[in-house]
């Protein structure tokens, strides 16, 4: 591993490492922690093995890759993969991994996206081997040596300077023994400002120029994650191509048409949430009564929907100022006047639920 010889080397390396994270929007605390880890390794110190937890669309894969790029700068051999890559390649990727971990002179990092798939029932033999390796690598009491899967020897493991990084949106599927040994990072929601910035990049890559008002509608559908915006931008491209419209002029009506086609609603609301607002516009209800109104609906989903509808919304500076769609009154939860206006606007725009 590269080590710092002087202040000049340190500053130059730090600049390169920071550059790996430059294009990642938001996640300032998480980026700082990972950069600190890399520079600790540069100075001969300990490297962090992170467990990145986030919903789909919050940038965990990109953050994982950036960490790998930074580790390569300080001399580690890095292998980034998803379990699906292992299933497709059969023994090929396992052989590549085995070559890395058995080379006593190499410092290395295994970066595993969708890491929960290593531990699911029915995992292939190769994935089971990797799961055993991950478990041993994160065990501080295991200093290296023979690793077995059942009675079979699968590797002679070199413990020194091994980084294991996992990313997942299913934290419950990561074994507690592994989660407790890694440094867990729960990635925050993107702010509206972050989502607007991300949308600019998406639109540019898709060859679209979106008007300010139209962009606001798209960004408001994000709900802290970029995934809904990806779907909307993709649908906008399909619509404009099929209609032979100019791709450089996306207006509000184009976005609303895309939402209707995707069965999505403004501000990222689900059909279930629209129905909650509709019901509570005339009939205030308690938690239990709301659950009874929607038989068959998951209770946790209903709670999450109520929580979201009860949130204040951000203004352009990220301050909480506007009234929520759902409030709490004498009879329980009730749709606010702002919520009622939202329902009316959606109906006038051709949405149905």
In words, what does this structure look like?
Strand 10 and strand 11 (332-335) form a beta hairpin. 48% of the residues lie in helices and 15% in strands. The protein has three domains: 7-186, Rossmann fold, CATH 3.40.50; 190-267, Helicase, Ruva Protein, domain 3 (Orthogonal Bundle); 269-353, Arc Repressor Mutant, subunit A (Orthogonal Bundle). The mean pLDDT is 88. The protein contains 15 helices and eleven strands. It has 353 residues and is α/β, with parallel strands linked by helices. Helix 1 (7-20) runs antiparallel to helix 2, helix 2 packs parallel to helix 3 (60-73) and helix 10 packs across helix 11 (252-262). It starts with 6 loop residues before the first helix and ends in a 5-residue tail after the last helix. 32% of the residues are buried. The protein has helices at 7-20, 28-42, 60-73, 83-89, 91-101, 125-137, 176-179, 192-205, 212-220, 227-242, 252-262, 271-280, 287-293, 299-309, 337-348; strands at 50-53, 77-81, 108-113, 144-149, 152-158, 162-168, 183-186, 313-314, 320-322, 326-329, 332-335.
């Amino acid at each position: 591993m590269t080590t710092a010889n002087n202040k000049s080397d340190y500053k130059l390396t730090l600049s390169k490492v920071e550059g790996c994270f430059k294009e990642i929007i938001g996640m300032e605390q998480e980026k700082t922690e990972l950069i600190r880890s890399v520079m600790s390794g540069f100075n001969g110190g300990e490297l962090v093995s992170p467990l990145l937890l986030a919903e789909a669309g919050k940038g965990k894969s990109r953050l994982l890759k950036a960490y790998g790029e930074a580790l390569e700068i300080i001399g580690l051999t890095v292998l980034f993969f998803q379990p699906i890559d292992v299933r497709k390649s059969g023994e090929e990727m396992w052989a590549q991994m085995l070559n890395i971990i058995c080379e006593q002179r190499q410092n290395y990092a295994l970066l595993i996206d969708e890491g929960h798939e290593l531990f699911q029932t029915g995992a292939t033999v190769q994935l089971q081997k990797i799961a055993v390796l991950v478990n041993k690598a994160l065990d501080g009491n295991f200093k290296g040596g023979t690793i077995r899967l059942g009675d079979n020897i699968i590797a002679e493991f070199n413990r020194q300077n091994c980084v294991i990084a996992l990313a997942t949106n299913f934290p419950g599927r990561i074994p507690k023994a592994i989660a407790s040994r890694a440094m867990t990072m729960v990635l925050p929601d993107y702010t509206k400002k972050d989502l607007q910035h991300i949308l600019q990049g998406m639109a540019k890559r898709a060859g679209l120029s979106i008007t300010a008002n139209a962009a606001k509608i798209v960004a408001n559908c994000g709900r802290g994650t970029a995934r809904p915006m990806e779907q909307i931008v993709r649908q906008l491209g399909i619509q404009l191509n099929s209609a032979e419209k100019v791709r450089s002029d996306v207006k509000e009506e184009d976005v609303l048409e895309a939402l209707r086609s995707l069965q999505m609603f403004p501000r990222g609301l689900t059909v279930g949430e629209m129905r909650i607002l509709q019901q509570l516009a005339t009939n205030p209800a308690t938690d239990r009564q709301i659950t009874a109104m929607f038989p068959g609906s998951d209770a946790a989903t209903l709670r999450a929907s109520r929580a979201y509808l009860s949130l204040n919304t951000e203004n352009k500076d990220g301050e909480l100022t506007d009234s929520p769609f759902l409030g709490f009154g004498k009879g329980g939860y009730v749709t606010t006047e702002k919520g009622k206006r939202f329902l009316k606007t959606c109906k006038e725009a051709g949405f149905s639920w």
